[in-house]
């Protein structure tokens, strides 16, 4: 039975060779080893002066440098107070950086600097809602040096193996525990270190561990003694057991032994060549590698990398058929994309679009209103949310749409503008998006179905109102002037929410130029599935508010699914969700809805499920729906399962253990009492949740040895979510981390599970170790 894997076992050659290093230098050895002698690293360690930009009048010099830990950046300023100088120092971690942008590519730099200094500017973009750091250097050469050096060390950190990241974390905790910086650890500092790594032990255990390692009887640990302390602390008994069971060749795992492990435990269709590949890839001992053997260190390295991850490595790249019609895919979609926070008074920003697109969101929303000086703006109308220029949003979308995925992006327009400003909207779209904007159907004849994501690679589609049918393009019957159309359903609902009496749905004047670039996504009002089937063309699509959509999914699930076999459907959150909360997207996917729009700015369970749904297929933002949601003969009903191709019963076993970070960094003595919940999200019959008991005062290497079994009927629609919480008897449990993925992407056997924070970013030092068996039910 599997037990906890923390996976911080280190390469003995590294620690033995560097045992004489000080505490302050040994823990950053991992970064230095990869970039030893690198001029970019030396440049950052030396640092230099940059101008920090906050407004037109606030532009001040700061001295920026990378600290010795190779993980923390500082920027300082000297403030005169009478005749004394005090130093104001701000710190941020390399792990907090999302990206570095060269040029005036942030809202702040565009607003507060002149275009003439474009090549002197760059920005550091942080994860989450932390404000960007806008900077100016003295020369373009300095900008290039800062940007390239920062990108190199960021990439180096990202590319460290899980094992090395864990070592990095351990040594950073050792450094913090060495309060007086003498490169030795007293018993008191050892106790402080144990609290840093999230484990509470009684004084006698700490003293006993200390005494065993203090071979010099000096009442301190240093050099080799610290190495011994580290090895005793991180020894993993469960890995010893698993490795020992299969290492049948003079105490090591031969290629044949490894193949037996892959076949019997991992349930892989492996060959001798696969075993050789893994030894070549992960073994760290040259002699063992030459003998086609894998040591315990190499085995541990394998378990902690992509080959040993719960997510099937083949699903990390695009592997699905991308030549099906567009409506045969789930499409990662955002609601009110411009908002950074709530729906009433939060800021609107181009950054919100960039962040969504960089998460492979493929459908973004633009809420367009008349702005000052004739320029249309985007904001949440009739609220106090701030405004951003329409053209600035289009520029940002153009620049970042295809950074993480080449597949098409849909711009969903909610148009409240006058005809004059609509004309400018259309011209901005055509000018900035250029040939990437789909302005007519693909091919020379009137289409009868959607093109595929593959055919639309690198293209933008406009979703909005259109004055006439699409076939008018081919019949020379196109309108030559503006006309009137009904307003968007979502716009009508927003108006309804802001007024006491239900208003009559109004019409708006639509500009011909804007109408003409709506090709495959023409917005129409939904009446009924029968009306849509008889009267609507394939490219005419409806938006459903969540209450309407959930009602249809419950009462007319099969009809809804058949509707989505021919047309696109967009679902959006209720207008009453002023806090930008989200609805559960799973029931919408269960009936084949493609554009299930969520508030991407809200870190929530619903967004975790969305991230899990789109994790596979290269995280490209498009997931091919199951065959039974694409075949017109299908009678699948997620609410009342009957016999059919969708019914593939599986049994899912989970045995878990976890090493966790502290969640309350302000309270030094705070230790987590962790537990794990395993959730299944899919059709109603498959939804389930089970949890382990909590373990008191141990977030470092808790072991639950808990076995779960889930009976699953429709695995192709099921998501698995691992939720990690800090148990609290007096109040609601605190969130620690989570990970979600499709059940069809799960690998059998002993696997590590990454742990993500609320934002969906990886917690590099933490991982869950599980044993999984996804078996056909009898």
UniProtKB/TrEMBL annotation:
One GO BP annotation of this record: intracellular signal transduction
Domain PH: 43-155
Entry keyword Lipid metabolism: yes
EC nos: 3.1.4.11
Alphabetically ordered keywords of this record: Calcium, Cytoplasm, Glycoprotein, Hydrolase, Lipid degradation, Lipid metabolism, Membrane, Metal-binding, Phosphoprotein, Repeat, Transducer
Binding site for Ca(2+) 4: 671, 673, 697
Subcellular compartments: Cleavage furrow; Cytoplasm; Membrane
Domain annotation C2: ranges: 630-757
Membrane topology: Peripheral membrane protein
Name under which the protein is recorded: Phosphoinositide phospholipase C
